[in-house]
Amino acid sequence: MSAMKISGTLVLLGAGKMGGAMLEGWLAGGVDAARVAVLEPQPAEALLSLQERYGFRLNPDAASIRDAEVILIAVKPQVMDEVLPPVAPMARAGTLILSVVAGKTIAGIARHFAEGVAIIRTIPNTPAAVGRGITAMAASPEVTPAQVRLAEGLLSAIGEVVTVGDESLIDAATAVSGSGPAYVFYLTECLAAAGEKQGLPPDIAEKLARATVAGAGELMRVTGTDAATLRQNVTSPKGTTHAALQVLMADTGLKPLLTEAVAAACARSRELAK
To answer: How many CA within 13 A on the CB side of residue 67?
Structure first.
C-alpha cells in the first residue's frame, strides 16, 4: 500500500462501514492524507477522529477538486442516483470511477458521467470490516492496466481482490462471496443447535461452533491448502467425521442445497441490477 502512488486526489464518496474501513486501511498503509478527500454528509465520531489524526479533507466543496484521480463510490444503493450528479463534474479525462455499491451496473453508473469514463464495478463482502474480505471486480473497456493495478491496491486495504473478465459474473460472485458470509453464519447457528440436541449446554455449543468455523477458515487462509485436501486430512476411515460426511455428502446433502441457494442469490442479484 505504501508503494502505491496517488498523483491526484483520491475522492471517497461515502464513509460508512465499508468506505470507512477502506479509508482507515489506506491511511494506515501510507497513502498521503493530503491527497484524500472524503464526502460524507453525516460523519461518525470514528471518521472525525480519523480526520483529526491524519488531516485528510472532509467535505470540501466538490467544485474545488479539479484533479480527481479516483472517485470511489461507497454509498447505499438507494441513494446513489441522488448523490452522484453533484460530484460527477469532478471526473476528468483519466479519472477512474470505482464503485463498491451493490446491485449497480457499470451502465447505471456511467449514465451519470461524461461518455468514455473508466469504471470498475466491485462486490466486496462484510469481513472487509476486519480486513479479511474479498472483492470481485469487473472493468469497463475504458479502464487501463494502470487503473486496474491502482484499483487492486486500493481494494487490498480490506482484503483479497479478484478480477472477473465479464461484468455478468459479478452476480455469481455476489452469490458466492457477497452473500456467502451469511451462509457461514447460518452454518455456525445450525452446528451449535445440533450440539445442543446432543446434550451440550447452549453457551458451550455456541462457543465450540464459533471457534471451529473461525479456526477452520483461518487454517485454509494460512496454509493455502485447498478445502478438499483439508477435509480429507481430518477424515479417518470409518471414524466420527466420516460418519457425519456420509450424511453431508449424500445426493440430497449439503452440495445440492448450497448449489440451489447460490443459484437463488445469483438470480436475485440479476433482478436487482435491472
So the answer is: 7
* Backbone phi, psi, residue 60, to 5°: -75, 165
Residue 225: strand, helix, or coil: coil
Contact of 38 with 47, CB cutoff 8 Å: yes
| 138 close to 110: Cβ distance less than 8 angstroms | no
Per-residue pLDDT of the chain (274 residues; tens, 9 = 90+): 544 678 999 999 999 989 999 999 999 888 999 999 999 999 999 999 999 999 999 999 999 999 999 999 999 999 999 999 999 999 998 999 999 998 899 999 999 999 999 999 999 999 998 889 999 999 999 999 999 999 999 999 999 999 998 999 999 999 999 999 999 999 999 999 999 999 999 999 999 999 999 999 999 999 999 999 999 999 999 999 999 999 999 999 999 999 999 999 999 999 888 7
CA terminus-to-terminus distance, the chain = 35
In the numeric block, the cell 461507497 is attached to 74
